[in-house]
Amino acid sequence: MNIYNQIASNKRKTWLIIFLFVLFITTIGYVFGKIYDSGLFFALIALIISTAIATFSYFSGSNAVLALSGAKEISEKDNPHLYHTVENLCIGAGLPIPKIYLIHDESPNAFATGRDPKHGVICFTTGLLEKLSKSELEGVTAHELSHIQNFDIRLMAIVAILVGFVAILSEIFLRSMFFGRGGRGKGQAIFLLIGIALAILSPVIATLIQLAVSRKREFLADASGALLTRYPEGLASALEKIAEDKKPLKEASNATAHLFIENPYKNKNNGHWFSSLFNTHPHVEERVRILRSM
Predict the structure, then answer these.
(1) Which helix (H) or strand (E) covers residue 6, if one does?
(2) Structural contact between residues 219 and 225, judged by C-beta atoms closer than 8 angstroms
(3) Active site residue: 136, 144, 218, 262, which one?
(4) Does residue 67 carry a pLDDT above 50?
(5) From 192's CA, which of 17, 85, 219, 238 has a CA 20 to 30 Å away?
(6) Kind of pairing, strands 121-125 and 110-113?
(7) CATH 3.30.2010.10 occupies which residues in the chain?
(8) What is the predicted pLDDT for the residue at 89?
(9) Where does 68-152+213-292 sit in CATH, by number?
(10) Are 262 and 243 in contact (CB under 8 A)?
């Protein structure tokens, strides 16, 4: 699949995820409402809320991600070397220069966000800038620019916000079961059981989908970034240095961890197939092997 097919695929997935999210939240609202004999009313409220959240995640999801990460925007005069590195690679990729943000943290890492290349953002930690060589920094930058070019940034920012909202909604639903006074009829009891099952399983399923999409995007961005720099070893070496550093990122959160180039929690990947489902990133060893075989 070429780059243009990947971009078109990501755009389709974005709208599909938004549609399924609105449908899912509306269904949850209906099930919740049936417990209180007000299914359609709760479904309408859920539809309004989910549409509002989906709209927010599309237009402002990246701002929320940056706020959660404690990132601050910088200009060319603040770090000319970094700015020119990004600028030169953007010229090669035919992309507008994204906004550049810094996180003041010793842990080396980086991520990209935004809803499209015109509103792209690349964020680096100060630890990354201190520990990587010129070619390694170019490799990481090219990787993040590939996320922007491929429209991964829109897809993953929206997924991060929506998955977080599903978790919050499920928590509210479960708490209401203990403190609410739903109907006691047989019909209400059935919907109560369905609602509890959805509330327990939906955050897990949503997270698994989020992480699976994230891992696939990382492989694609590695390959696209290596093609941009024409030097796969730069990114391969950078990934090794980032993985070897054991300091976790202080501002990392479950909502944003999948966006970074490598797991910001620095957890050791477990080889078991079940636990690997919950990894935010592919194994560094596998990514490096693929890069060095290019």
Answers:
(1) helix 3-35
(2) no
(3) 144
(4) yes
(5) 17
(6) antiparallel
(7) 68-152+213-292
(8) 97
(9) 3.30.2010.10
(10) yes
Residues of the chain with pLDDT > 70, as a percent, come to: 76
Q: What's the gap between Cα 124 and its chain centre?
A: 16
Q: What number of CA atoms fall less than 13 Å from residue 231's CA on the CB side? A: 15
- Write down the pTM of the prediction: 0.74
Contact 262/125 with Cβ under 8 angstroms?
no
CA 23 to chain centroid, in Å, comes to: 21
Q: What is the pLDDT of residue 263?
A: 84
Confidence of residue 178 (pLDDT cuts 50, 70, 90): low
- Long-range residue pairs from 115-120, CB within 8 A, at least 24 positions apart, any chain: 115/58, 115/59, 115/61, 115/62, 115/153, 115/154, 115/157, 116/151, 116/153, 116/154, 117/148, 117/149, 117/151, 119/62, 120/95, 120/96, 120/148, 120/153
User: Do the Cβ atoms of 107 and 245 come closer than 8 Å?
Assistant: yes
| pLDDT value, residue 65 | 81
Orientation of helix 39-69 relative to helix 3-35, angle to 10°: 130
Q: In 10 A of CB 135, how many CB atoms?
A: 14
Report angle CA 179, 180, 186 to the nearest 5 degrees. Answer: 125
Per-residue pLDDT tens digits for 237-294: 999 999 999 888 987 776 677 789 988 887 555 444 444 455 667 889 989 998 998 8
Q: What is the dihedral of CA 239, 241, 242, 245, to 10 degrees?
A: 150
Instruction: Tokens for 24, please give them.
Output: 């899912």
Query: How many angstroms separate the CA atoms of 285 and 274, rounded?
Result: 19
Q: Both tokens of residue 56?
A: 């927010």
- Contacts with 76 (C-beta within 8 Å, 6 or more apart), sequence order: 83, 84
- Greater confidence (92 vs 46) lies with 92
The yes-or-no answer on residue 240 being catalytic is no
Please give the single-letter amino acid code of residue 276: S
